[in-house]
Design a protein that fits this description.
The protein is 31% helix and 16% strand. The strands form 2 sheets. The chain has a 5-stranded parallel β-sheet, with helices on both faces. Strands 1-4 form a two-stranded parallel sheet. The chain has 216 residues and is α/β, with parallel strands linked by helices. The chain is globular, with a radius of gyration of 17 Å. The N and C termini lie far apart (37 Å).
Length: 216
């Protein structure tokens, strides 16, 4: 893939649409396909699938936190019976970012199942504290491959909570107070990212509807 600056990259010019598959070399390691429909754990089918770029990417935690999401493990959602809109999840460390870039290139190259649409990327902290410079630099590579990147910091309380204990974000959930436990509300960064995700999905669905109407 040709190295480009952020402003020269095709994604900058066209607002996050897919790159021309002919210009992208897919990675040799590819994600599997999930043929079964995504599980419906709430009152409504999921709006987005969380796909892990690697093992330990935090897909189950993110999918729990975001009520409209479903955990798809490390597989692309291949069934058209449930959503094929995807958020790729990765840890904010060099191996995690490299794996994330591989999954994004795989999608751009047309190697993901038909119908898959990558909405963005969610990066979860690999440790508390500052992010090393090398990790920040490679984060820019991921940003050049998708137009939406959300970052979730380190939350100590996660180590002592079971998944089912965690509070959930849903559309119109009010912003959490400054000090609250993870069983009461989602963290502020999870709420902010969830709100932006819902906005992005709403815009995507509206655009798709307008394009269908214009073709009639």
């Amino acid at each position: 893939m040709v190295a480009l600056t952020a402003h020269d990259h095709p994604l900058h010019a066209i607002g996050g649409r897919r790159l021309d598959p002919a210009t992208v070399h897919p990675p040799s390691n590819r994600a599997g396909y999930r043929a079964e429909p995504l599980p419906i754990t709430g009152a409504h089918p999921p709006l987005v699938a969380i796909v892990g770029a690697h093992g330990g990417a935090g897909t189950s935690t993110v999918a729990r936190w975001w009520a409209p999401a479903a955990d798809c493990g490390q597989q692309w959602p291949a069934s058209p019976e449930t959503t094929q809109r995807v958020v790729v999840a990765a840890r904010l460390c060099l191996p995690g970012l490299i794996a994330c870039a591989d999954r994004l290139r795989e999608w751009h190259a047309g190697s993901a199942p038909d119908g898959v649409d990558v909405v963005g990327v969610v990066l979860t902290a690999a440790r508390p504290g500052r992010i090393p410079a090398a990790v920040r630099r490679y984060r820019a590579v991921v940003e050049d491959l998708t137009d939406l990147v959300w970052e979730i910091g380190w939350h100590d309380e996660l180590v002592e909570r079971e998944l089912g204990e965690l509070a959930q974000f849903a559309p119109f959930t009010p912003a959490p107070p400054r000090r609250s436990g993870l069983t009461e509300t989602v963290p502020a960064d999870v709420h902010r990212a969830g709100s932006e995700l819902i906005d992005a999905l709403t815009t995507s669905l509206k655009t798709a509807t307008e394009e269908q109407d214009s073709e009639r």
